[in-house]
Amino acid sequence: MSSPHVVTLGTAGGPRWWERPGAAAARSGIGTAVVVGEAVYLVDAGQGTGRQLARAGLPLDRVRALFLTHMHSDHVADLVPLLLFGLFERPDPAAAPIEVHGPGPRGGLPPLSPHATGRPAPVAPANPTPGTVEMVDLLCAAHATDLNDRIFDSLARRPADLIAVHDIALPPGTGFAADARVAPVMEPFEVHRDDVVVVTAILVEHPPTAPAFAFRFDTAEGSVTISGDTAPCANLVRLARNTDLLLHEAIDLAAMGRRYADTAMRRATMAHHGRAHTTARQAGELATQAGARVLALHHLVPGDAPASAFSAAAVETFRGPVLVPDDLDVIALATGRRTEVA
What we know:
Largest sheet: 8 strands, mixed
Number of helices: 11
Shape: globular
Strand order of the largest sheet: 6-5-4-3-2-1-14-15
């Protein structure tokens, strides 16, 4: 397909392996490729993103930038393979580094769940909530033995030659506060521009993670807005105004409520799901408010639920086309037409 399009590299959300024998669906972790001509832009790098890029016929040397919506593991799990294996997938030493844009540090631990019976010991208490730049530095440090073996013995390139990492700076005066105002009313702001695309971002509501972003890609032949993880959010509607394609997360709360055997964990996790995610019906409402032309649901939770469980709810509140793409589906921005990668 020559016109701008997205490839749904992975369509499942949550820190679980949904691809397993006997599963109702085979969905990889969340990751989306926006393809404009020869340029490829990634949004999130969930489990399997690198493998799915290869399956989609999108070599890493075509990737210009990666945008991380937030720091949860299901959105960044494949950063390590991209850092380690990517050394051998971009052979041209003159190629510009892949730009990586993601959230900055949260600034401290999140509030403790009211369902807790005691205070847990935090992981990495000296720096418990690093941002994108620090996270990549820490990942490289953790794999320094491997990296230095390859750099010194095999003359591989360093990760710093492969990627250029940036914490997304919020515009002055947003009023953002990680524990109180995670998505204050604001206007979208530009985070990337080149010869074929303009990428804008906005804060969305995914507490306790903050900051969390949605991204919009505008091209000469159409636009796509990708929600990231969020509860129903006015900022998302603002960013997605009149977008050609809205890719929005969707959760089936009833189905997820049956997945937890531990009572305390179920109560705390379901409280999180209810305040930090969006049902398919709510996604349809947001698409209607934004005037989106096509709604596609992804980051499906649970990732092994049938597509009909999500589409049936969304069509109640959105009159335009509703898609529930599988992994490696291709959706054109200009037409909303869905195809499958051979």
